Each structure stands twice: as C-alpha cells, then as structure tokens.
Amino acid sequence: MVNPCNLNVPEERLPSLPIDLNQVEGGSSLWADAWYRLRKNRFAVISLVVFLGITLFSYVGPFFCPYGFEEMDLATRAQGLSLAHWFGTDGLGRDLLARVMYGGRISIGVGFIATAISLSIGVVYGAISGYAGGKIDSVMMRLVDILYAMPYAIFIILLMVIFGRNIVLLFVALGAVQWLTIARIVRGQVLSLKKQEFVEAAVSLGLSDSRIILRHVIPNVLGVVIVYATLTVPSIMLLEAFLSFLGLGVQPPMASWGVLIKDGAENMTVYPWTLLIPSFFFSLTLFCLNFLGDGLRDALDPRSSKD
Amino acid sequence: MFKFILNRLLQAIPVLFIIVAMTFFMVRAAPGGPFSQERKVSQQILEKMNEHYGLNDPVYVQFFNYLKHALQGDLGYSYKHEGRTVNEMIAESFPVSLKLGALSLLFAVGVGIPAGVLGAVKKNTFWDYSAMSVALMGICLPTFVVGPLISLIFGLWLGWFNVSGWFESGDVVLPSITLGLAYAAYIARLTRGGMLDVLNQDYIRTARAKGLSPSAIVWKHALKGGLLPVVSFMGPALAGLISGSFVVETIFQIPGLGRHFVNAALSRDYTMVLGTVLFYAVMIIIANLVVDILQVVLNPRLKYE
Amino acid sequence: MPLLDVQNLKTYFHTRNGVLRAVDDISFSLERGETLGIVGESGSGKSVSCYSILGLIPMPPGRIEGGKAIYDGKTDLLNCSEKELRKIRGKRVSMIFQDPMTSLNPFLKISTQLMEPLFIHERMDKKKAFDVAVQALEEVGIQDAVQRMSMYPHEFSGGMRQRVMIAMALINKPDILIADEPTTALDVTVQAQIMEIIKQRQKDLGTAVILITHDLGVVAGFCERINVMYAGKIVESGTADQIFKNPLHAYTVALQKSIPSLHEKGKPLYTIPGLPPVLIGERTGCSFAPRSELPHTPEEAAMDGVFTEVEPGHMVEVHPATVVNYKQYL
Prior knowledge:
Chain A is mostly helical and 307 residues long.
C-alpha cells in the first residue's frame, strides 16, 4: 500500500501454500471452511458489503442522477450541499454526486481491468519459468528480481508523458507492473509440482503440459490468486489516483477519484467539500478492499491469522 | 565487507544500464521532438537546435554519447531551461528533497518504532488497539489525500502553519508529516510484529531469569531483533519516498527535485528526465546497499555474502 | 530451616478451552546445597512449577492461584513485588534452560550477556566484570575464553552454549540453580559432560540444584532427593534410594521400567500405556488410574488419593489404582 513506487503485494500478505481448496477435510471442503471463516469475520463482511455498495452506487447510480458528470451549469457554481445537489457542485457548476459516481466507475474499473492484466501476465510468466526450469528459469527470475527494484511510478509517468495520456495505455501500464509476486508464486508451485511423482507418471502417460498445469497448479494457487487480486485492485487504484493527481493519469473531461481529489485540492480553500467527498469515497474503498483481502487471507490460511 | 560492497556495486551496473537504456529509448520513441511544441520556431531554427543537441545522429550514437557523458558525471543541458545544465538543477533542488525526505523518515521512525513497541509490550490492550487502528488508517490513506486534508485543517482552518511554500522553518512540518505518515504506520506495524516474535523467544525468558527489568529487556534484548523487519523495509521505503515526494512537493509547492521531475516530464524536457531518473536509480541503489550493510551490522548471524 | 519451602503451589492457565491446571497443589522443600530431582513426563507440570517460583510464567494466560514459596525463611517469592523478585532472579536463584540454541540472545555478544548479571546485581565495573566472566568461562571448561568473549552465540556448538548458560547462571554464585532439562537438546556424548560440569560447579560453590528432567536415568546418581510428578501433582517423593529401591507408586515403577540403560538387551523397550490426561477442568479421583496396570474397580478409580508419609522422608500418593496393597499405608 505504502509504496506507490512498487505496489506489488508482498508475500507476507498472502496465504501460505499449498492450499488445495477442493481438498476435503472432515466432511467439508476447504472452500466451505474458508467461506465459513470469512462470514465469521465481521470486519471482512462489512468491508465486502460496503465495497459492493460503493460499486453499485458508481455503476448504477448515474442512471438515477439527473445531471451528467460533465454538465456545467454556471448558474449553480460552487454550491454547498443541498437537496438539488446532494454533494454540492464544483467551481464549474458540475454536480459533484454525478462526478463522484462517474469517477468511481473509472477508478474501480481501472483497478479490476489492470488486475486482470497483471494476473494473466504473472501466471503465464511464472508457469513458463517454472516449467522451463534450468537456465531459462534462472534468467527469468533474475529479471523479476531486477524489476522488483525498479521505481515503477517513474516509468509509468514516462509512459504517460511519451505516448499521450491514453486511458487504454494507462490500464495496460498499470497492469504491467504488478505481476511480479504472482509470477514468483506460480513458478514455485510449478517447480514443486514437477518434482512430484504423479506428474512424472502423467507425463509418461502422454498428458500434455498445459493439461497438467490446469489440473494441478491452478487449484493450488487459486486461493492465493484470489487474495492477491483483492489486494492488487486497491494498489492499482492508488497508483491510478497518484498519476491522476499529478495530472498524468485520467484526463479531463473524464474523471476518476484521483482527478476529483486533485481538483478538490486545488480549490479546497474555497470549496472544501469538493476535496472531502471524493477523498472519503476513495479512502473508504481502499480500506474495504484491504480489510477484505486480509480477511480472505485469514479465512484461507487460518494458521497465518494474527492474534 | 569491502568485497561485499564492491560486489554489490558491480551487480548494480547492469541494473543501472537497463534503467538508462529503457528510459533513453522510451523517451526517444516518443512522437514529436522536444522542440515541436514551441510554436513560433521556424524549420531552420528547429534544424539548428536538433543539430546543436545532437538529435540528428542515429539513436544508438546518441545513446552512447549520452552514456559516455553520464559516466563522466555530465548529464547535459536542459532542453527547456536555456543555458542550465541538468547537474546544476539537480544540485539545486535535491538538497530540498533530501531535507524533506530525511525529516519525514525521522518522523516515521520516531513515531513508528515507539508505537510498535508499545503495541507489542501492551499486546491486546487498549493501547495496542488504538495504536494499530491509527496505523491502519495511516496506511490506507494515500499521501495525496492526507496532504490536502492536513493542509486544510492545520493550515487553513486552524492557521498553525502556512498552507504551502518552503520559506519559514515551520513550513517543513506539514509536508514531512504527510510524507512520513504512511511510513510511520507501516513501521509501527512491522515493529509490533517483529517485537512480538522476539518477545516470545527463549532468550527473552533467559533475560528475565537473569533479573533484568522489563525496560532493559525490551530496549537491550528485544529491540535489535525486533527491528530487523523494519530495516529490510527501509530499502523499498526509500524508493517510495521518492515517488511520494512528487505528490508532496506538488501539494505544498516545494522547490525540490520531485516537482522538477514532474514538471520536466510534463514539458518533455528529455535530458532533465533522463538525468533525474538516472540520479534516482543511483540513489535507490545506494540506499539498498546501506540497508544491506545495516542488516548485517544488526544481525550477527548474517555474513556479508 | 529449608532454603526454599514451596507450599500448596497452584498454577493454572486460563485458555480458550477452559482452565488448565498445570500445577495443582504441590509442596516441596529444598535444603542448602542439596540436589533435588523433579521427574515426570512432558506436560506433568515440572517446569511450570519452577517457572512459577521465579515468576517466569507468561501472564496471561498463566496465573498463580495460590501457595507460598518461602525463600531463606524470609521472602515469599509468589507474593512479593516484581522488583524484589528481580533482585533474587539471577542473583540468588538462577536458571538454565532446555535448548541452549535458543536460550542465548543471538544479537548480543557472549561478553555482553555474561557480564550483564554482574552489572545489574553487583554494580561491578566493566574491567572487573570482564575478568570475572572470563574466569567463569574457564571454570566451565571453555578454552581461549578471552577470544570467545567477543563471539556471538551462533559461533558456538550446542554443548558450548550450554556451558556458557551454566557459566552465566552461576556467575553471581547463586544459592539455587534450577536446571530445566539441561541435556535434553544435546548430543548424547555431550550430555554426560554437561552433567559433570553442573556437579563440579555445585561442589565448588555449594549451590543447591533443582534438576528437572523426564529421564529418571539422568537423576540416578545425581540427585539426593527426587519428586515424581504426574498431571500437575507430586505423586511420590523421597530420597534417591527410596525412589529407586522401593518405588511404591505405579507411575514411578513404570518410569523406572522405561529407562533404556537399565533395560535388558533384546527385549522390547517398556512404554507406559496410554497418554497423559488432559489437564483442563476439574479432576476427581486418580489421574493415573486409566493407565495403571494394577487391577482396580471404577469405584476405586474415582476415589481421591491420600498423600501419606510411608516411611521417614518417603511420601506417596496412596490410591487403590496405583499402590500395591494400599491399605497398609493408610
């Protein structure tokens, strides 16, 4: 969370491996156990509910809102909170409620799409590295080590500057820097799997590599991937907001929460609510996702739960 | 020890090379040259400027020229600030950023370690829960939310400090807290975790059996081991401080290197961007080396590899 | 007057699953210079009872529920202030632990750790403390002591570390040394050396020793008196002769049968049937009855044992399920 330079989720925050969630222990599968433990964790449940609420608010809310996010009305500039404009309006007379909902769409959307990209890269990279083994593996992992030390924020800033502040590129760039930890985990799993006898047996029976990976690696890492994704979404949202705040991310008239916070910060002396409201939604979302991620970790890996 | 440092520095060379190469070619691949935005420049002058800055040579020649100069410590002239070298600009603004970074780190360590120790020693009490809840908030609140907020509250509403600027000695307070807060929170959590691990060790029982007082046990016997996770966090933390400084220097309008970098990036000042990235990379490598050495100093079981 | 007189000590752990009665009403005493063995399986409460005396029980979950431990006729170690207790720990009563690999602080030099008790209890100056520490190392058979002082624990072998522990525990010439399984974690070849060093130092300093072990074989020939503990209670106590030549409690008998060195070659090694009881909650009757091979009825097993002196200095928990012809002792 803390380091916008390298937001790869640290391994300590993930459950320890291997957890085969389809495995049955004492009559109930680990999925059921994990689900039970998660429901017991009050903070995690509240976080999930609040996050779903915010998501719904962002994606469905605009249909019920009479104002467009870029609709300016100079007659109602910089109004405080009122019945007509629940969250007030900004310096250009745009309805802040509409903007917060619209900004949420972009921020949450960026988080999920970039996370999906990072997961795909990480899983494929890790699987190849582990499966190839030997020299290829050590070169690939050395590269990961080097990349861990890179100041990503700087590179993304460069990318955005050079190739224009294109939102698709932003998605890809954000996703492209977050795959390191998951690549390491998947590689470790593939490596340990390769040593097991049943895999040798499967190979000798002529089963294809991809089938073996699908059958045996995926179930083992699924739990980790879920937690990883839950924690990567907020870290990508943070990076997006960081860039937008510097004016290098999402460009007006489009709005993300980062853009709204930037606008609010510029005008906070006159209309503080334009800073406070988007900051509240953004921070609350980060809170919820982090709580949820930690809750999922504890649910999937009861040993790691901190007393 | 000397060999260890030398070894590390040798390992840093390929990393640095990759960073410089990536940055250089990314910048060169950009559509439009550095002078294409200036409107009233005639074709002739543009040619001349390109010529002057060596932009008409093949890219690889430019790259090796740049490398050659960089190795001699010469990062070239700024494209945007006429007559000023990148070296000058870094030399001028880096001390500001360094002061900001050092103060925020001081704040982070000064608040984080005692809070973490308190949490561990008074585990599962009111003190522990309140310290850790505050820490969690500090971690979840991003710099660009904290910065405007505390500047709004303490600058504007309460009027204790200037809202922005870098003139009086009091001006360092809000930016340092903004930049250091997340690290204070993180350090508090790491310290608590590390201390809890250590306080459960057998050798703490031995120390108690020797008749040591609780404070001597915490500060003399436990802290050294308990701080190991904090020390290994310092490497990434320093890299994070750099990107944090972009935000904080922008919010509080501090004339540091971070703001220069963002401005250079926004205005396509290629040499300035390249030079700053290279400078940051060297800083990060040195910081990591210092952290590695510190770890060995703290933990006698580690040997210099 | 005994040097240490423990009466009715009770130490319970308040866990999530209930109250664990780790030490449940035990009494024993220790004379000056004497060697006392406390023997029992792991979990029998032998270590907890000694940790309680020094206030080393983690609290919570642990709690000393009652009893006294009168040291030197004056101080009650269980009811005195933490400050008073600190003056006794490491000065009058010292302790060495089972695992020398983890009992020394890996982050501090041997010299720092050895000299620490001298600084806090004797306010000795640095130079003198260094000399005393070097001498202490030499006395436990560590060569090149001066060079060794500036090393870290990981540069020592297990046996060497235990020697350092002994040197550290004895550096202030305490009245009592509590040795908690001092040889369990060590190689067999080193075990005898460590016991020999403890014995030698005890002779030099006149220290009383409490030796906690699960191995009756270690106690034999080392201790003058022996307490046998089972499930948080002392079930038999007496001189070494009484315990070895005339064991009365079925558990003592079983322990003796399971000493590997006394065992005939070729025959399968004796193991005590069953498992130690779970100590959570209140217990009635005899805890050992379910594992005892003596014939007894369920009604008899539910009876409470009576801790009786059967001959001078020899106490046994007399119970139908554990003592042959128990009626003659009541």
